[in-house]
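User: Predict the structure for this protein chain, please.
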Amino acid sequence: MNKKVTIKELAEKTGLSTTTVSQILNGKGSRFSEKNIKKVLAFRDQLHYVPNSAARNLSNKTDKTIGVLVPTISNPFFSEFLQLIENYSDSKTHVIMIGLDGDHSQLYSA
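Assistant: Here is the predicted structure, written as structure tokens:
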């Protein structure tokens, strides 16, 4: 499994501050040079950077977690139900937490 690239690592690669990189990635980089914007976007694509949704939720003071409690995932009904939820949600902004009723020690994240 590949390790996710952090915004800090992206900043180190570009030679820019974490704040600058964050602002550029969040569309608030109009005060930065075109050269730096292109550099950040190029490294983002090259390193396959994906924003950390948990960190984004903390900074925005929002939570886009969808919690689902089902008795089993082996039943085709619940499998289809979970697939519909996954299809409906935006995987870049939502985190789906699946719990199995009856065994609260198991919690899966999709």
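Helices lie at 7-14, 18-25, 34-47, 53-60, 76-88.
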